[in-house]
Amino acid sequence: MYKCITSFADLQAYLSGAALAAFDFETAPHPAWAHEPKAALDPHKAHIVGISFSVTEGSAVYLPIAHMIGSNAGPLVDIWQWLADAFFLNPAVTKIAHNLAFESAFLYARGIVLLEPVYDTIAAAQLTLKAPTQFRGLADSGLKTLVPQLFGTEMPSFETVTAGRFFDELDPAAPATINYACADADYTLRLYHKLNAWFDGYLPRHRWIAEQVESPTAAYCGIMRYNGLKVDRALMERKAADAEQELERLRGEIAAIIGDVPIGANASTSAFKRYLYKDLGLPVLKTTAKYQEAADDEALILLSEWCAENRPELAPLFRLIQDYRRWGKIKSTYIDGYARHINPVTRRIHADLLPLATETGRFAARNPNLQNMPRAGADDVGVRNFFIAPEGSVLLSLDFSQIELRVGAFYCRDEKMLETYRAGGDIHDQTASVIFGPGRHDKEQRTIAKNVNFGTFFGLFPRGLQRTLRFKAGLNVTLEDCEGIIANLKAGYPALARWQEETKRKAEVRRFSETWLGRRRYLPGITATDWGKKAFAQRCALNTPIQGTAADLLKLAIGRILAGLPEHPWLRPLLQIHDELVFEVPEGRVAEAVAFIRQCMEAQPFPEFDIPILAEAAVGARFGNMKELNNDA
After folding, report:
1. Which residues contact 26 (CB under 8 A, 6 or more apart)?
2. How far is it, in rounded angstroms, from Cα 124 to Cα 400?
3. Cis status, amide bond into 374, omega within 30 of 0
4. 341 — phi, psi (to 5°)?
5. N or C: which end of the chain has fewer CB within 10 A?
6. Distance between alpha carbon 284 and the CA centroid of its chain, in Å?
């Protein structure tokens, strides 16, 4: 039964005593943003119009609070205070929502941190299977998609109910309004029970991940998205002008060599490829997946090296093309691309953080993709310097130190690795000693050791190592030397090779790999007769326990931080990027913030994990100019 309630007493009567309840917000844009599509989804441009709740399947109530016609509930001050204390912050009530990040952001806008226990049915859905070896993606997990599939009924559509109006223009007492709002909460609750029954029957550990890892992470993501990163727009505009000037110069110098051959925005036009391979007659050193001549960055590097020996007069062209591509990406992706997403209300960028967008459980980001932001000092314009702290505050980042290597050492149980981390030693120096022998190591040997370490647990092959050292480290190491490096690595870390072989064998028997917490990844190609498919699946079998467990550790830390935010209201989470969490902090609160966040990140994640975890802190007014803090900061 669905109904509209406007009495504070009726709300209390419905929710009081409930151990779990689903809820859903209906929102509408502020008048100033009514013309903008999707403004109702932005808590900086919109407001909550009403809230639906469901405590039992088939039952729901709708609480209107900001409709422009009809009756709204009141008194709102008392209602919001009671909801905060008795519901959203209550540790005795499981709060369920479909796309919890959305509700979390709108609550945070009201100064409320949504606290555990929470349950995000859209995250849980992505941890269930839509085919025997395929998990649901985000696009498969919308409420309007799942309900017909799992319950055999169609939900009322927003477009049909609103007929071109905003939700606050509807009569809250109208049956269509009540049915639409209440159905969202009701079917979210039904979905909670349906998904948990599936987990209990097929993947019990995924239920724990949904409840204890992904749902708190979703609530935290809503807070990060709401806060966003403050942008130095003036600096961005200056760098855009500098980049365009550099591109114009490069276009002119390239044209002086190749004439009027169009190169487009990225020097990847079919005309330019014809010029390289037909007009110049250069050899095809790399092909695309469709066996056509490649012209990506790696292909151009190979051609450049070939020309340096065989056609030295063409070497300047390839240097210019590489510079042109680099500057083109900087401008299109990191300047123009980021600028398009600056919110006019906040002057900040509020990216979408996607905690379940990868098969290992690592985060992704979109609108824009801040995950691929260049590291400080690794680009020509200093992209990270676009992001700044407001006056009186600083940016603070805490980054897990070598978390994947630590997780790898935990898995393979190699004594040398374990001892290095337990004693606070340098794993890169230890690996250099394993490869090249004890003693002092020069810069090149240490660079090789670092690159080897980052591929150690994922199954190194000599040719792959050679390519990595060549294209990522700029080192030309012979194939024979790479074979020797890998042989020494396996001999020096004997438990590593045993773990790799055992993990691949286990994955081949089970047809899946998983993290320590039980996050599963199916590997149908692990038994393929095609060597390429099988080798890829084997790499995934090795990659998933390491990268996936590292991702789980970060999300567990996020849950601890979320729980402490009400006691640290001045701490503003902004961003997750790789193994790093970024915050905005008042200048006088840095030491307090570092102590709290480190405690959350360095806590033992589960009883079996016996390797120290370290979080390195850095602080600064600009994200690209952060100063490292010592462990006592």
Report:
1. 48, 49, 50, 51, 52, 167, 181
2. 26
3. no
4. -105, 15
5. N
6. 37
- Strand locations in 19-59 (E): 20-29, 46-54
Contact predicate 163/552, CB 8 Å: no
Q: What is the residue-wise DSSP string for 257-288?
A: HHTT---TTTT--HHHHHIIIIIS------B-
| Cα–Cα dist 218/228, whole Å | 15
Asked whether the beta carbons of 228 and 348 are under 8 A apart, the reply is yes
Q: Note the helical H segments in 54-152.
A: 76-83, 100-109, 121-125, 143-151
* DSSP classification of residue 333: I
Q: Mean pLDDT of all residues in the chain? A: 94
3-state secondary structure of 618: strand
- What letter does residue 626 receive in the DSSP assignment? P
Please give the helix or strand (H or E) that residue 119 lies within, else none.
Answer: strand 118-120
CB burial of residue 502 (10 Å; 0-12, 13-18, 19+) = exposed
Q: Which residue has the higher pLDDT, 601 or 380?
A: 601
Cβ-Cβ contacts under 8 Å for 247 (sequence gap 6 or more): 324, 327, 328, 331
339 token code pair: 């600028």
Per-residue model confidence as pLDDT tens digits over 496-529? 989 999 999 999 999 999 999 999 999 999 999 9
Q: Whole-angstrom Cα distance, residue 298 to residue 181?
A: 53
Arithmetic mean of pLDDT, 154-178: 96
Least confident of 22-36, 371-385, 547-561: 371-385
Residue with the bigger pLDDT between 376 and 317: it is 317
| pLDDT value, residue 631 | 60
List C-alpha distances in Å: 492 to 1, 179, 420, 488.
68, 67, 13, 6
Which residue from 296, 458, 455 is spatially nearest to 466, judged by alpha carbons?
Answer: 455
- Structure tokens that stand for 377 in this block: 């000092």
Q: Which helix (H) or strand (E) holds 227?
A: helix 215-227
Helix (H), strand (E), coil (C) string for 174-216: CHHHHHHHHHHHHHHHHHHHHHHHHHHHHCHHHHHHHHHHHHH
pLDDT at residue number 447: 86
| Banded pLDDT at 462 (limits 50, 70, 90) | confident
Q: How far apart are CA 212 and CA 207, in angstroms?
A: 8
Task: State mean pLDDT over 187-193.
Answer: 98
For 96-136, write each residue's pLDDT tens digit.
999 999 999 999 999 999 999 999 999 999 999 999 999 99
Q: State yes or no: cis peptide before 438, omega within 30 of 0.
A: no
The tokens describing 579, both together, are 């193994």
| pLDDT computed for residue 632 by the predictor | 54
Q: Is 581 helix (H, G, I), strand (E, B) or coil?
A: strand
